[in-house]
Design brief:
This protein is mostly helical and about 350 residues long. Helix content is about 80%, strand content about 0%.
Length: about 350
């Protein structure tokens, strides 16, 4: 009983109403600022030929920071691959030099034998063919002791010409793989930088949003994520609440005003009704031809943000008149529908 009496006390009711009024005004202001900023962003996107709508542009804008982080990581990866490729290239060139020296030594020992016809060999530029021919020549009984010793020394050197050749081929594959990794990383960086440039271009359009996304206006950063079409619905509702609150305060301050407003009790109910009526008007006017019999529906383009706001405020202020207007439209619409549904005689 004490709690119920405390809730019903004038002071408690006054505090609750004050908090409710503050909340309505704040919500309306934040939604209106967001809608106005979105309108400016959409206009800027159109002027710079961004080629995307608000939602897609906002997604690119949010991904810009992550994209910049990815570019930093790719740059570090590029330096790593570049160092690895230079290392493998150096090792490959070292093996090329060592392999050439070993094959030169083998060729100088084997070629005189081939020239004298001691060992038979078909003409070939393939080094492994030369290696196998030299191994076969080593088993030739016609070789002199000096020729056999020279050939044996060329074949048994460590590492052998054949081993260096195999190492060179393996290192060549490693070097090619490192080079391909470097090229792939550079291609990824080029693609990411292209996206970054597009994101920075789009980011200039979102400068209007900076004050809303800074975090010091509670709830504003959340509303920025809403597409303009959804924000217009929230704006219609908030404007309706604000309009109903406005007329309620006018009646409270000027109870004997000459302006003809509908009176009544129910502070909170009247404000809520204003918001709901405004949303109803938004839906009906958006229906256009099917509901009102007009040639076109009310445009939902971003350029009409203030139009929706004005309609919402007026609908909230004059919710009784709007309800009567909607009633008239309903009678006309449903009466026409019933007439159209009646079958003609003889059918």
């Amino acid at each position: 009983m004490k709690f119920s009496a405390a809730v019903k006390s004038p002071f408690t009711i006054g505090v609750i109403r004050f908090l409710g009024v503050t909340l309505v005004i704040y919500a309306f202001a934040v939604v209106l600022m967001t809608a106005a900023a979105q309108q400016q962003v959409s206009s800027t996107l159109a002027s710079i030929n961004a080629g995307v709508g608000y939602s897609a542009a906002h997604a690119k804008f949010l991904g810009l920071k992550q994209l910049q982080d990815d570019i930093s990581e790719l740059t570090v990866e590029e330096r790593t691959h570049l160092a690895e490729q230079r290392k493998t290239e150096f090792e490959y060139q070292e093996l090329v030099s060592a392999s050439d020296a070993a094959w030169g030594e083998l060729d100088s020992a084997v070629q005189p034998l081939f020239d004298r016809g001691v060992c038979a060999m078909k003409a070939s530029t393939d080094r492994m063919a030369l290696w196998h021919a030299a191994r076969r020549c080593l088993g030739n009984e016609a070789l002199s002791t000096a020729d056999r010793a020279a050939l044996q020394g060329a074949l048994s050197r460590s590492p052998s010409a054949e081993e260096l050749h195999q190492r060179k081929l393996a290192q060549s594959r490693i070097n090619d793989r490192a080079y391909n990794q470097l090229l792939a990383t550079r291609a990824s960086i080029a693609e990411a930088r292209e996206k970054e440039q597009q994101g920075e271009k789009i980011g200039t359009a979102f400068e209007e949003m900076r004050v809303l996304t800074s975090g010091w206006i509670p709830g504003a950063s959340l509303l920025v994520h809403f597409p303009p079409t959804l924000i217009q619905i929230l704006l219609a509702f908030a404007a309706g609440l604000f309009g109903a609150l406005l007329i309620t305060l006018v009646l409270a301050v000027y109870p004997k005003s000459s302006v003809k407003f509908a009176g009544g009790e129910g502070f909170g109910a009247r404000i809520l009704l204003g918001g709901l009526i405004a949303v109803g008007v938004y839906i009906v006017l958006s229906g256009g031809a099917s509901i009102l019999g007009t040639p076109a529906a009310l445009s939902a383009a971003p350029s009409n943000v203030m139009t929706f706001c004005a309609l919402g405020i007026l609908a909230g202020m004059f919710s009784d008149r709007v309800a009567f207007w909607l009633s008239e439209k309903a009678e006309i619409f449903f009466a026409r529908t019933r007439t159209e549904d009646v079958p003609e005689e003889g059918t």
